[in-house]
Amino acid sequence: MTMREITIDHLGDIARGAAILGTGGGGDPYIGRLLASSAVRTHGPVRLVPLDEVGDDAVVLPVAMMGAPTVMVEKLPSAEQVGLAARTLATYLGKELTHIACAEAGGVNSLIPVVAAAQLGLPLVDADGMGRAFPELQMVLPTLYGIRATPMSIADEKGNRGVLDTVDNHWAERLARSATIDMGCSAMISNYAMSGAQARESLVPGTLSLCAELGARVRQARAEHADPVARVVERLGGRKLFSGKVVDVARRTVTGFARGEARLSGMDADTGSEMVLKFQNEHLVAERDGITEASVPDLICCLDRESGEAVTTEGLRYGQRVVVIAAPADPRWHTPEGIELAGPRYFGYDIDPVGVSA
Amino acid sequence: MRIGIDVGGTNTDAVLLDGRQVLASVKTSTTEDVTSGIVAAIDGLQRQRAFDPAAVQAVMIGTTHFINALVEAHRLAPTAAVRLSLPAGASLPPMVDWPQRLVDAVSGRSYLVHGGHEFDGRHIAELDESELRKAADDMGAAGVRSVAITSVFSPVNAEFEARAAEIISAQLPDVAISLSHEIGRIGLLERENATVINAALRELAAHIVDGLAASVSGAGITAPLYLSQNDGTLMDVDFARRYPVATFASGPTNSMRGAAVLSGLDTCAVVDVGGTTSDVGVLRQGFPREATTDVSVAGIRTNFRMPDVLSIGIGGGSRVRGNAGDVTVGPDSVGYELTSKALVFGGDTLTATDIAVATGRVEIGDPSLVAHLDRGLVRAALDRIAADVADVVERMRTSAEPLPVVAVGGGSVLLPDELSGAGTVHRPENYAVANAIGAAIAQIGGEVDRVYAIEPGRREAVVEEAKQEAVDRAVAAGASPASVGIVDFDEVPIPYLPGNATRIRVKAVGDLQLGA
């Protein structure tokens, strides 16, 4: 299925699918979906361009929201704020933008670029920088290709904007995080400006189509009283790890991130076993009876057992019946450089990554 | 003595209590004007057990009237939503995700004004008073009669909402004003939606409350009148005029609170089996656990205090289909047509009530009309009901600790004496009027729900401060100081925010201070 444009009717499926690829993070996409609906209603459908059709000289700009989802649901962002971030960077670069892209596939940030594209009247590239969601902004495949996060722009709703030019991508994360807090913890950013050639090389193709397709599969499976989880696993080429009930969730805030663990007690074929999910916004490690079954960079998704909807790490609570699935990340995440950037050790788990195959 | 009344969609139930002892209980039909049904119910109590109206110390009423008015889009006032947020928030104006039918029903108008706070209390922008005055002019010209004011992060700092209310009232003294920080939580659209709904119901609330007061005083009762709230505490009539939205979920809450008193269990799961659904909630220290997620009301997302209730389509009127091997119960129901459609009433539809009668657990209608039913089918249908209800109860548990189950409501005869995974089912006396009893024994509460920046070493002090404030609020609302205690405490760190930002919720509750 190749999607050539995004209309209001696609947004629900995209949000649902993005929440799955968000692997427990990415926030509640509700506000993102409303903003995207409003932008598409005002400016018309957004043209979606397959990655391989982006010309070499294209100027591609990923846009995203940075900050606390808790703040975003209170201090609502505006479409103008999203457009401002992109325009600020283009002005700094002295280039005419040709395409908008997604930095990550997950919750809010798969929909913010739709808002930007609608508002600026630009096509959106059907791709993203991760093929999933990660918590820090240097964790994108373009980092592996030497593409710099900066210059990057950051904009708030008041019209304040800044451009950062940092020595490396880790500093970009650090300085942007402080600016975000001063801006009231909900900012729009634009970074990893790249040529069309760089985009084709470094982005993960087809992500928005994939989100829409995953969302549609879940919706259709429910309508047919079929198993939505199985349809997701099949499409992602992944594996069902565990079916169980949440029996304990422990959370703590460490340097601004919500870290924690959820314990699941097995049901059906998994009765008698236990799974522990370890997360920092996103699910990072899944252990079954003490043995690691899957880990970052691969995708670990927790889905509601009946509805197939993604359960965010914030939304985990005792008694939920969930199915944990794992799916392979883009193979480039499994190179030594990819593992260094987003493997288990980066997140403080002293284990080698455990890959998933169907 | 006190009187508890629950005005449901179908039945108006009333009880006369002395302390916690039930002296009389009646079930009457709810009338269209509500008040005559209440008068009939009080008469019914009087006939069952004559009492001196002057000896009644308080009357508590739980009503579904306001939520029904919203669902039916009936008698809603022309309402304006004022949001203090600019330059933030313009892309998603008030009522952005409402069903058009309801926007029309409230003649919804919106105004965006500069103002609002950041998460840490800084101003997004200064409140623009001239913009507000211009908005008030426009509202006056448009015939707006009720205004909902929402400011960004008002649960952290409500100064702008209060100031905006002064300005609008000065210009439009006759409009009712609802402030969001008094109604909902963090989550602007959901809190604003709840506030607009409240505003739209203000005129109807004044009318209904007057009617309730008249029907009570018409019965010679001079005691104060209270309405029960979503959280199982009481509000006085002035509060009810201002916050009708706080009565929305009082029905299930009253059933649960009544179940607690009747069974003597204050931490339990309650299954309230009605005609079309079974509602399952959880009581902690005698109060319903609140929903932590947004709750949709008439298709509108809101985030005010509501009990966490899970419903399944199993009730006395549920249709029973299939055979012993593949029986299904519900989710569709014959509803109010039970008395013409069920087999025991000479109808042609097999319902859950027929199953209950066939087992001999209860005698309704003509038992001989179900004597022919296949015993295997009857057994299978009961097992189906028990399994489905047990599953919902299991879902509602939030910890591994065992949770006793209390069954109330007219349809609770459908439940077995044991539920798998839950053990014995408690079926207290007076179970059919648990809701009216819940209204009668309701208490007075005070709540604090705020985001605090907790400095190192200050956690204990901050928590103490929050608890004391909740206690003070309960006393200010009419609770007897000696009886007030903390019934709920919740502390959640907020990710991505600096300064160890933590959301603290505390609820204190005490007995109503009865007549001097």
From TrEMBL, chain A:
<protein>
    <submittedName>
        <fullName>DUF917 family protein</fullName>
    </submittedName>
</protein>
<dbReference type="InterPro" id="IPR024071">
    <property type="entry name" value="S-Me-THD_C_sf"/>
</dbReference>
<dbReference type="Pfam" id="PF06032">
    <property type="entry name" value="S-Me-THD_N"/>
</dbReference>
<feature type="domain" description="S-Me-THD N-terminal">
    <location>
        <begin position="10"/>
        <end position="165"/>
    </location>
</feature>
<dbReference type="InterPro" id="IPR010318">
    <property type="entry name" value="S-Me-THD_N"/>
</dbReference>
<feature type="domain" description="S-Me-THD-like C-terminal">
    <location>
        <begin position="168"/>
        <end position="354"/>
    </location>
</feature>
<dbReference type="InterPro" id="IPR027479">
    <property type="entry name" value="S-Me-THD_N_sf"/>
</dbReference>
<dbReference type="Pfam" id="PF20906">
    <property type="entry name" value="S-Me-THD_C"/>
</dbReference>
<dbReference type="InterPro" id="IPR048350">
    <property type="entry name" value="S-Me-THD-like_C"/>
</dbReference>
TrEMBL record, chain B:
<feature type="domain" description="Hydantoinase A/oxoprolinase">
    <location>
        <begin position="191"/>
        <end position="363"/>
    </location>
</feature>
<protein>
    <submittedName>
        <fullName>N-methylhydantoinase A/oxoprolinase/acetone carboxylase beta subunit</fullName>
    </submittedName>
</protein>
<feature type="domain" description="Hydantoinase/oxoprolinase N-terminal">
    <location>
        <begin position="2"/>
        <end position="170"/>
    </location>
</feature>
<dbReference type="InterPro" id="IPR043129">
    <property type="entry name" value="ATPase_NBD"/>
</dbReference>
<dbReference type="Pfam" id="PF01968">
    <property type="entry name" value="Hydantoinase_A"/>
</dbReference>
<dbReference type="InterPro" id="IPR008040">
    <property type="entry name" value="Hydant_A_N"/>
</dbReference>
<dbReference type="InterPro" id="IPR002821">
    <property type="entry name" value="Hydantoinase_A"/>
</dbReference>
<dbReference type="Pfam" id="PF05378">
    <property type="entry name" value="Hydant_A_N"/>
</dbReference>
<dbReference type="InterPro" id="IPR045079">
    <property type="entry name" value="Oxoprolinase-like"/>
</dbReference>
